[in-house]
Amino acid sequence: MQFGIFTVGDVTPDPTTGRTPTERERIKAMVAIALKAEEVGLDVFATGEHHNPPFVPSSPTTMLGYIAARTEKLILSTSTTLITTNDPVKIAEDFAMLQHLADGRVDLMMGRGNTGPVYPWFGKDIRQGINLAVENYALLHRLWREDVVDWEGKFRTPLQGFTSTPRPLDDVPPFVWHGSIRSPEIAEQAAYYGDGFFHNNIFWPAEHTRRMVELYRNRYAHYGHGTPEQAIVGLGGQVFMRKNSQDAVREFRPYFDNAPVYGHGPSLEDFTEQTPLTVGSPQQVIEKTLSFREYAGDYQRQLFLMDHAGLPLKTVLEQLDLLGEEVVPVLRKEFANGRPAGVPDAPTHRSLLAAKEKEAAAV
């Protein structure tokens, strides 16, 4: 099982000081967080994609390429690649290039995003969001697997005899997760292709997450990719920790109360009771994260959101120390206990290449 962090790259004032970091400071902080993730033994760093203030990660492959040059083991991912507004040809080429630079330590998560105005900025119609996601990914899937593509669709100009370059490393496309909070069509899409399904899991109650994951698992089996238990599932989560739970609550409360995504809404206590957000001690984070298996089954990837709402970099790095030293080692051990033998590990470039070579040898 893989553990890591994801960032949305928000530039938010620190409510305790009133200071807002510059865009440069925020970008540099995201890099520092990625390097810290590798240092403390995490597996994955994932960045979102946004094209509007107050967010800065408009070019994920630029950032991930820079991080690739400064890390050795960390898997570099997106927590959203906007399949709706990006040209699938450009996605194919950008991420294949990143694959080569990072020696295969790359995957990506397709999503529609949650910012409506981005559609017209890139010449798209938000009313076609699902259709764009379906058509664009169908083309991207082919571009990575066929050397020469002839294609015609509704939303972009046709392709005739087109080859995207560079070709995927070792002729193995990056593994794709399809991320969604509320759209069953995206769970269906992930199942159809036998790709991974990532449920953000940071705003919604457990029963909603259960329904979405079960839909994906059942449809994955329907399309003949394996049993429901063999489907590839990832979950998000949010945590804030201190050694003493009361200290964690006291320190995090002003950030929660003023956060752009949920500030001035439900109380911190209500939100932690009704969603996966955990604010407390490392042991409380361990216990709540382990409970995810009760409604999502045995899954492959757990990512945490830790650097949002104006939290200063120093605090985030302290959080990563706690996560790497006290939380993740226990989670690795406990999630492995009772894990059925037939449940696969999270795909990596190495495992996908080995499967490809095994399949070729069997022909």
From TrEMBL:
InterPro entries: Bact_Lucif_Oxidored, LLM_FMN-dep_put, Luciferase-like_dom, Luciferase-like_sf. Keywords: Monooxygenase, Oxidoreductase. It comes from Streptomyces tricolor. Residues 1-295 form the Luciferase-like domain. This is LLM class flavin-dependent oxidoreductase. It comes from the Bacteria. The keyword Oxidoreductase applies. Transmembrane segments: none annotated.
